[in-house]
Amino acid sequence: MALKNPFRRSVKEHPAMDDKTVKNEASEHAAAMNEAQEPATADTPSAGDNSELEVLKAELDLLRAEHQAIHDKHVRLFAEFDNFRKRTAKERLDLLQYAGENTLKAVLPVLDDMDRAIANNAKVDDIEAIREGFNLIHQKMVHALGSQGLKAMPDAKGEPFDTDRHEAITKAPAPTPELKGKVINVVENGYTLHDKVIRYAKVVVGE
After folding, report:
1. Is the Cβ–Cβ distance between 203 and 185 less than 8 Å?
2. Is residue 18 part of a domain?
3. In a domain, 161, yes or no
4. Furthest-apart CA pair in the chain: how many Å?
5. Is 41 exposed, middle or buried (0-12, 13-18, 19+ CB in 10 A)?
6. pLDDT of amino acid 125
7. pLDDT tens column, 103-138
8. The domain containing residue 164 runs over which residues?
9. Beta pairing partners, 201
């Protein structure tokens, strides 16, 4: 149904109104019609705005879930690393304290033999039996330490002086010219542990 324009009047109906007056009234009527067609509240969100808000809310929820998952993972990793640090510190301390446990266990039987030999020697007058007992104990000691990787260096007497294996405690005149710069006497044997020198042989070098 078309609205009746109350301002639409011809010049014939109002001979006193000219064309300019008619145009002004028509413009005022059009402005009034536009105001009537505008929404009552300009701040009311449209359907498109509601949809965008829902999308943003969903993205925010997803980010929160991802953040919580990362936070939980970080907490677990930190706890695992702290447990690992404490465990390794304890293992290192135990290693330092009980590093020689196996060696001592291997030597204990030799110590038992020595105790028995001392008790037996108080009743025995045979020197040869005592000497034989000490030799057996010495052999057992060498075997026990050898099982742990300890070895005595070969006799260096007559060998060229080697700074990687020998420690010269003094020099002495060489008995023969061939022994100059060579070992003429071994004061203390040297030892290696798994081929690593742990004690240099103390020797006398000829000059």
Report:
1. yes
2. no
3. yes
4. 167
5. exposed
6. 84
7. 889 899 999 999 999 988 888 888 898 899 999 999
8. 151-207
9. 166
Residues 6 or more apart in contact with residue 160 via CB below 8 angstroms:
181, 182, 183
Is 199 a member of any domain?
yes
Asked if 107 and 144 touch (Cβ cutoff 8 Å), the reply is: yes
**57-69 residue pLDDT tens:** 999 999 999 999 9
- The residue ranges of DSSP E strands in 121-182, in sequence order, are 150-152, 166-172
Note whether residue 54 is domain-resident. no
C-alpha–C-alpha distance, residues 186 and 152, integer Å: 13
* Count of domains observed in the chain: 1
Tokens (6 digits) for 200:
């240099």
DSSP-based three-state secondary structure for 109:
helix
Q: Are 204 and 171 in contact (CB under 8 A)?
A: yes
d(CA 110, CA 135): 12
Q: Is 148 exposed, middle or buried (0-12, 13-18, 19+ CB in 10 A)?
A: middle
Q: What is the mean pLDDT of the chain?
A: 82
CATH at residue 156: 2.30.22.10
Structure-token pair, residue 41:
């509240």
> Measured between alpha carbons, how far apart are the two ends of the chain, in Å?
137
pLDDT in tens, 134-183: 999 999 999 999 999 999 999 999 999 999 999 999 999 999 999 999 99
